[in-house]
From TrEMBL, chain A:
This is Pyridoxal 5'-phosphate synthase subunit PdxT. GO terms for molecular function: glutaminase activity; pyridoxal 5'-phosphate synthase (glutamine hydrolysing) activity. It catalyses: L-glutamine + H2O = L-glutamate + NH4(+); aldehydo-D-ribose 5-phosphate + D-glyceraldehyde 3-phosphate + L-glutamine = pyridoxal 5'-phosphate + L-glutamate + phosphate + 3 H2O + H(+). Transmembrane segments: none annotated. Keywords: Glutamine amidotransferase, Hydrolase, Lyase, Pyridoxal phosphate. PROSITE patterns: GATASE_TYPE_1, PDXT_SNO_1, PDXT_SNO_2. It comes from Alkalibacterium thalassium. The gene is pdxT. InterPro entries: Class_I_gatase-like (IPR029062), PdxT/SNO (IPR002161), PdxT/SNO_CS (IPR021196). Catalyzes the hydrolysis of glutamine to glutamate and ammonia as part of the biosynthesis of pyridoxal 5'-phosphate. The resulting ammonia molecule is channeled to the active site of PdxS. One of its GO terms (cellular component) is glutaminase complex. CDD domains: GATase1_PB. The active site is at residues 83, 175, 177. It comes from the Bacteria.
From TrEMBL, chain B:
Catalyzes the formation of pyridoxal 5'-phosphate from ribose 5-phosphate (RBP), glyceraldehyde 3-phosphate (G3P) and ammonia. The ammonia is provided by the PdxT subunit. Can also use ribulose 5-phosphate and dihydroxyacetone phosphate as substrates, resulting from enzyme-catalyzed isomerization of RBP and G3P, respectively. SUPFAM superfamilies: Ribulose-phoshate binding barrel. GO terms for biological process: amino acid metabolic process; pyridoxal phosphate biosynthetic process; pyridoxine biosynthetic process. D-ribose 5-phosphate binds at residues 26, 155, 216, 237-238. It holds the Pfam family SOR_SNZ. D-glyceraldehyde 3-phosphate binds at residue 167. Its EC number is 4.3.3.6. This is Pyridoxal 5'-phosphate synthase subunit PdxS. The keyword Chaperone does not apply. Belongs to the PdxS/SNZ family. Pathway: Cofactor biosynthesis; pyridoxal 5'-phosphate biosynthesis. The keyword Lyase applies. The gene is pdxS. Homohexamer and homododecamer. In the presence of PdxT, forms a dodecamer of heterodimers.
Length: 193, 296
């Protein structure tokens, strides 16, 4: 890539695409929507947003993006999955076999682990590598049951893992894009080369 | 780690943000809910009858039997919505206690209160409400709705009213953009809308919550049309399970909603679907049969 400005793609199939683009622009990063295979050619990193993991997984397949996503990961490019994006990035195999899991980060996931919408919450979250607690909004959020080798745990809520990383892949159960606290997004940008 | 706070505006509106670009389908049992989930629905609306059957049945339409709602909640992992009558505090509290993910304060059911809508800010569970214009949209947000949808004319399979309502809201937002700040109070008075929200919409250039299309979506092209008119997503009521092949219609409408500007694909998606639900010409509905006039 030419110049210092990084371009981050937001997978635009379903979910909180607009919010991620807004947050990226707020911190001065070029943000583009990614819907087709060729859209991957111009980006330095990818965000898989929150939404419904079953719907997004299905649309990834129907848009023939699965192979391109795996290639992007293999090339060592940075990927950030929030909520549904976390589920899609996991290796979890406790789900119905037709549901897509990309296996970018070695961990098992409990979908809707904090309960239904009435239990959705916000809180201040201690996040490894970030100096002060981050504003975190959890919506029908999953948590990480167990991480495998090579995965670093970054945050927990009452003993449940809600953020982790493995090489260039970062995942969070919560939605940084719904707040004006950009610390986690800036943390992700450090992975983008 | 500080404490968890539930039911905040961000948590309630955020839930609707996660549904954007998706399709929410009406279902009346666990089997239909599974079909909807497998087709890629982002949520289901659990009902006793779909709107077209409510029309046929006549009489008073009420909140669904909790058994049906529980059956649907147990069958799928996607969010489950349910309908309460306009102004029916107890139905809404019952649905909240059952843990449904979203309540639709809906004109499809017979209103319990012809004067007052629910004070939706009082609940932990988020609400979606129907609107025909910007004034109605902002009144509902003022009461605490976290998501809006067009009213359209439910159960007709006729898109014309949903189009009218989506165009009206968006055209009024554009008009609002042209107003100077000293004109806003009068604009708010004319709309019958809270002044603070009128100001907010002028600053944002859009509604502060998600706005879906509803009321008359029967085909993939209908869903695509509503997306191109600026809908954030689509509710399909009778359109799926009153069609000849629900699985096909459900899958095609989901893909059409994501790819609403890919006309070659839309042509493919519209092929060999079988018969869509039978539609009703709006002019043939008696005034008393129009659901959209319920609420204000």
């Amino acid at each position: 890539m030419v110049g210092l400005t990084k371009t981050i793609g937001v997978l635009n199939l379903q979910g909180a695409v607009r919010e991620h683009i807004r947050a990226l622009e707020k911190i001065g990063v070029e943000a583009v929507s990614v819907k087709k295979e060729e859209d991957f050619n111009i980006i330095d990193g990818l965000i898989i947003p929150g939404g419904e993991s079953t719907a997004i997984g299905r649309l990834i397949r129907e848009h023939h993006l699965e192979d391109r996503l795996r290639q992007f990961h293999q090339d060592g490019q940075a990927i950030f999955g929030t909520c549904a994006g976390l589920i899609l990035c996991s290796t979890d195999d406790s789900h119905p076999t037709q549901d897509l899991r990309l296996g970018f980060i070695n961990m098992d996931v409990e979908r809707n682990g904090f309960g239904r919408q009435v239990a959705s919450f916000e809180t201040k979250l201690d996040f490894k590598g970030i100096d002060k607690p981050v504003e975190a909004v959890f919506i029908r959020a999953p948590y990480i049951q167990e991480v495998g080798e090579g995965v670093t745990v970054l945050a927990e809520v009452d003993g449940r893992i809600v953020a982790a990383e493995q090489n260039n892949v970062l995942v969070t159960s919560h939605h940084p894009e719904l707040t004006d606290d950009f610390a986690v997004l800036e943390y992700f940008m450090k992975k983008v080369s | 780690m500080s404490e968890r706070v539930v039911g905040t505006e961000r948590v309630k509106r955020g839930m609707a943000e996660m549904q954007k670009g998706g399709v929410i389908m009406d279902v009346v049992n666990a089997e239909q809910a599974k079909v909807a989930e497998a087709a890629g629905a982002v949520a289901v609306m659990a009902l006793e009858r779909v709107p077209s059957d409510i029309r046929k049945a006549g009489g008073v339409a009420r909140m669904a039997d909790p058994t049906i709602i529980e059956e649907v909640m147990n069958a799928v992992s996607i969010p489950v919505m349910a309908k309460a009558r306009i102004g029916h505090i107890s139905e809404a509290k019952i649905l909240e206690a059952m843990g449904v993910d979203y309540i639709d304060e809906s004109e499809v059911l017979t209103p319990a209160d012809e004067e007052f809508h629910l004070l939706k800010s009082d609940y932990v569970v988020p609400f979606v409400c129907g609107c025909r214009d910007l004034g109605e949209a902002l009144r509902r947000i003022g009461e605490g709705a976290s998501m809006l949808r067009t009213k359209g004319e439910p159960g007709t399979g006729n898109i014309v009213e949903a189009v009218r309502h989506m165009r009206k809201v968006n055209s009024q937002i554009r008009t609002l953009q042209t107003k100077s700040d000293d004109e806003l109070m009068t604009f708010a008075r004319d709309l019958g809308a809270p002044y603070a929200l009128v100001k907010e919409v002028k600053e944002l250039g859009k509604l502060p919550v998600v706005n879906f299309a509803a009321g008359g979506v029967a085909t993939p092209a209908d869903a695509a049309l509503m997306m191109s008119l600026g809908a954030d997503g689509v509710f399909v009521g009778s359109g799926i399970f009153k069609s000849e092949s629900p699985e096909k219609f459900a899958r095609a409408i989901v893909r059409a909603t994501t790819n609403y500007e890919d006309y070659t694909l839309l042509a493919e998606l519209s092929k060999d679907l079988g018969e869509a639900m039978t539609g009703i010409e709006i002019g043939h509905l008696a005034e008393s049969e129009r659901m959209q006039e319920r609420g204000w």
